[in-house]
Amino acid sequence: MPRQTASVARLSHHSASEIVTIEGAGRGELPRRRSGQALDRVRQLTELLAEIVHPDHAIDRLAYRKALEARASNTVRALASDLACYAAFCRTELGVSLPASESRVVAYLEHLEALGRKPATVSRRLASLATIHGLLGVTSPTLAPVVRDAMRGLRRRMGVRQRQAGALRFGPGIDAALALDGEDGAAEEGQGKRSHRNAFTLTALLAACDIDPSGLRDAALLSLGYDTGLRISELLRVEVVHLTPGETGDGAGVLFVPTSKTDQQGEGAHAWISADTMRRVAAWLEVAEIRSGPIFRRVAVRRAKAWAANRPVRMESLAPNARITRERMYGRPAVPAKVTYTVGDVALTPVAVRTILKRTALRAADLGLVDLYGSALDDAIARLSTHSLRVGLTQDLFANGEDAGPIAQALRWSSTATALRYGRELAPESNATARMLRNVRQ
Q: What pTM value is reported for the model?
């Protein structure tokens, strides 16, 4: 049965006269969202490939569909998007679309540059073309020197700097832990608190989360995402069975990551979880009554307004032509406001997580937890993405003096290049030079 509570201590933003009902996982039906029929991207990609390939290289649709099904869903999504872009270009150009010639690929690069596509996007679309040619069993023209030179010229003209997701670093608290002992350390801690208030941090967002079911879920999601540095697809695949208490007895835990972007075969990896995160996750699982399956799920909120009591009306006071209703004759008792929280059965979507991040950040600004206003606030919120927690953890690890190798291993990267790129925008007051010279050159 659904649980009802009017506890002000548990749900502080509800009034004492409000009836709050929490329908745990599997105990209620969520309202259906309006959505079109889901597209089968693998089938769509296979059909598009069959449409633009030359008859001399006709494909076996079943074989190609099976080959595409072996790839990660995000990879298939990118291939479908990139091939659709190339097909649209080919419809305006005469000649064979696939396999492509070197001159056609160069013309395609010029087309993408004219559209204002960023070098990173163009590079991905070239990589997708190379993958498609590999499926066709022919040499990819993207490897030709003329194509490489064309791409090099595009990068030089447009620049290669990518807009990185805004980092959600831990914030106040980590400065004290990393600061030197003594008065200098105390000074650094104060400087850290002031600098962190000029940007969104994990600490600020956790403080902005409410203590209703949605807020408990959001806090658990943010906390676990930071501790483990999981990609959004990995974070949304976390299930109850993947969490285990640690062996140190300090309340920390361990998360088993069954698969990741760099582990498509499913060898698995493990990530450490802080005691604070374990408590937050446990609080969410308890209120949502989740015993198995995905941890982070949709929460639907239904609200009903309160109705004031109506007294019965005496018959002699009614006008001759007045309508007589049961409510007028017998009155109506007061009806308190009602709020019902219903927890779903399936995991959140990446779009939902992005909305949670931006909504919580805006609430943190409204509560005065950050010193951001006007255009600076808009820009900071715009930079937040589902990758912000991973970027923030990476920068905090660099600020703690960790090398790129151990960071790449902890965050499950196949190389150190991405870790170094994330650390490139580390705040100057936290980089290696600042750590070494702060107490030497005063």
A: 0.69
